[in-house]
Design brief:
Layout: H1 5-21, E1 25-31, H2 35-46, E2 51-55, E3 73-77, H3 78-86, E4 91-95, E5 98-102, H4 103-117, E6 120-123, E7 125-133, E8 136-144, H5 145-150, E9 157-166, H6 173-182, E10 196-197, H7 201-211, E11 214-216, E12 219-221, H8 224-230, E13 232-233, H9 240-257
Parallel strand pairs: 1-2, 1-9, 2-6, 9-12, 10-13
Antiparallel strand pairs: 3-5, 4-5, 7-8, 8-9, 11-12
This protein binds ligand 48F.
Ligand 48F binds at residues 31-37, 54-57, 62-64, 126-127, 167-171, 173, 223-225, 234-237, 239, 242.
């Protein structure tokens, strides 16, 4: 077989173009491919909901790769272990209710299952703004991360979605942009992003799931972003809350969409 470089280029351009075109309107647009965004994407896609995930970085997985201080092991508690089981991630009991998993295996499995279930992941794209119509978020404003990093003056493109999920981690970027640009009132106790508080793993693991909910019409937070939006502590390298939050948001959205 002769290999033609232009044919390779044509294959990539044609295929990516079709993928992007078919995701300009989706049911759920998830911002951030960390553990909670990927988990949410998997449970939605599994129910045939059209879901696209937009990730700023080259790699998916957010803060999961590095475990704790770059020791690439993560801890989950019993109630989240069943989610890792569903993803086919091997766990080992450390003591009692504490289970260990390899962080690299975990990220790979979350991404693999989400993609195989039908979620489309777009890496290297940053969400820089939202679209709002009549008091509701109706889509996202996207630009290449390379444009953002190089601070180039290039206009973005937009996608429409029935729901948006802010799974951007500590930065809660969707909530922050909404607050900064539109001065709307969020469904929090202050009407603004409340902010994350200092480490308290037990409390954080509980509140993160409760806080993973709609914070403005059409937008949910999932994972660490939720404690930044509604207020709650951080938890360090225990990841059960991220998985449970992603599943919970997916389950809420499935009810809203059906
Ligand atoms: O930070 P991240 O892993 O969020 P998460 O799923 O999990 C949090 C844990 O990793 C850890 C923790 C556990 O104890 O506290 O921090 O809640 O993943 C967030 C992803 O969102 C991407 C970012 O690159 C990362 O991969 N992201 C953030 N802002 C944007 C974005 C944006 N504006 N556009 C696109 N992607």
């Amino acid at each position: 077989m002769s290999i033609d470089e232009i044919k390779i280029s044509r294959a990539i351009v044609d295929s990516y173009f079709k993928k992007l075109m078919s995701n300009l309107e989706v049911d759920v647009a998830i911002v951030g491919a960390g553990p909670s965004g990927l988990t949410c994407a998997y449970y939605l896609a599994k129910r045939n909901i059209k879901v696209a995930v937009f990730e700023r970085k080259l790699s998916v997985g957010g803060g999961m790769w590095g475990g704790g201080i770059m020791f690439n092991e993560i801890v989950v508690q019993t109630k989240a272990k069943e989610i890792l089981d569903e993803f086919g991630v091997r766990t080992r009991r450390f003591e009692g209710e504490y289970f260990l998993a390899d962080s690299v295996e975990s990220v790979c499995a979350l991404a693999d299952k989400a993609i195989k279930a039908g979620a489309k992941i777009f890496n290297l794209l940053s969400v820089e703004d939202v679209m709002i119509r009549t008091g509701r978020v109706t889509g996202l404003v996207l630009n290449w991360s390379a444009v953002e990093i190089a601070k180039l003056h290039v206009d973005p493109i937009t996608i429409r979605s029935k729901f948006v999920v802010d799974a951007t981690g500590h930065a809660a970027e969707v909530a922050r942009v909404l607050e900064k640009k539109t001065n709307v009132k969020l469904k929090t106790k202050t009407g603004k992003t409340v902010g994350e508080t200092s480490m308290w793993a037990e409390m954080a693991e509980d509140t993160i799931v409760k806080n993973s909910k709609e914070f403005y019409p059409g937008v949910y937070s999932s994972g660490m972003a939720s404690n930044a939006v509604f207020g709650g502590p951080r938890m360090g390298p225990i990841f059960g809350g991220m998985l449970l939050a992603g599943r919970k948001v997916a389950s809420d959205l499935i009810k809203r969409l059906k």
